[in-house]
Amino acid sequence: MPHITMIQLEYVVALDKYRHFRLAAEACHVTQPTLSMQIQKLEEEFGVILFDRSARPISPTQVGSRLISQARIVLSEAERLSTIVDELTGEMKGELRIGVISTLAPYLLPLVIEPFARRYPQVSLIFEELSSPRIVDHVKRDLLDAGLIAVDVSDRGIVEVPLFTEPLVAYISRKHRLYERDHVRIADLHVDDVWLMREGHSFRDQIVQLLRRNGAHAAGEKAVQFESDNLETLQRLVDRGYGMTLLPWLAVQGKGSSAPDQVREFVGDVPNRTIRMVYAKVLVKRHTVEAFSSEVLKAVATVLPLNSLLREPSR
Predict the structure, then answer these.
(1) Residue 307 confidence (pLDDT) above 90
(2) How large is the angle between the packed helices 6-18 and 21-28, nearest 10 degrees?
(3) Average pLDDT over residues 215-225
């Protein structure tokens, strides 16, 4: 039976995580030759090559991927021993790294950070604003502990927990033909006068599918073509009297939110999106992630419409 050490497994997982010997060595607080030598010893013990060194960036071989997956499980279970003690004593500490999509982060995080920090002062929250595909990739590679996204994930290595349903609202220029309406329907919209986010954003894809599926029709080409990575940029266009856009419900709540006189709720088939927490099936910090999810639910419960929560927050 091959002789394997926990240090070797940590080095292998680190190299898979960073895909670069120097970065992996720095993360493990060892020299690059030390990390390289230990990984090579492990390869010799198994008689296989775990990483393709000629690839840029370095990537695991097929057998390496299988072994690294198992190494994560072994390391997770070892770390779980101390985590069990923390959970039983009611203590939570350490870092919690969470990825959040850009159409959610500026509206949700201000509601959650303070109450979570007050309740769990020994947990350091680290957020990254990323696209949904990158969040899922980072979760799988252990660059993030969890992520908040608004798309369905079909991946056997990922746990997906729906948290709440967020309605969308129309944000309409005062010069727009729909401004005088008290409410709007999807069928009232023209595809060509709705400002959209840039291609690649899941929020854009959802809006386009929604408009087409619900019979929104084309009114002709826009005089100005513009797409953005930022919802606030689209709002500013509307404020200057150009067209309209769709916003998440949380974007129009609380201080600093959009002008209420330009917001119109939908009637009929109300468009919405489901916010999901995602994390790896092998997760040491499950208790901390669940605690954060609970704080999210408590925070949004006061501003979302009734029956939007898909889970009950823990007490």
Answers:
(1) no
(2) 130
(3) 53
Predicted confidence (pLDDT) per residue in 96-134, tens digit: 999 999 999 999 999 999 999 999 998 999 999 999 999
Residue 240 lies in a domain: yes
Transcribe 30-74 into DSSP letters: S-HHHHHHHHHHHHHHHTS--EETTSSS-EE-HHHHHHHHHHHHH
Task: Tell me if 308 is assigned to some domain.
Answer: no
Per-residue pLDDT of 24-62, as tens digits, reads 999 999 999 999 999 999 999 889 999 999 988 899 999
Q: Output the domain CATH number for residue 63.
A: 1.10.10.10
Structurally, how many domains does the chain consist of? 3
- pLDDT one-digit tens code per residue, 232-247: 888 888 888 888 999 9
Same domain, 244 and 279: no
* Backbone angles phi and psi of 255, in degrees to 5: -65, 140
Domain stops at, among 59, 86, 113: 86
Confidence of residue 77 (pLDDT cuts 50, 70, 90): confident
Question: pTM of the predicted model, to two decimals?
Answer: 0.74
Nearest to 103 by CA among 198, 226, 180: 198
108: Cβ contacts below 8 Å, ≥ 6 apart:
100, 148, 250, 296, 299, 300
- For 277-312, b where at least 16 C-beta lie within 10 A, e where not — what string? bbbbebbbbbebbbbbbbbbbbbbeebbeeebbeee
Please check whether residues 191 and 243 belong to one and the same domain.
Answer: yes
Q: What residue numbers bound the domain in which 283 lies? A: 92-164+273-301
CA distance 153 to 176: 37
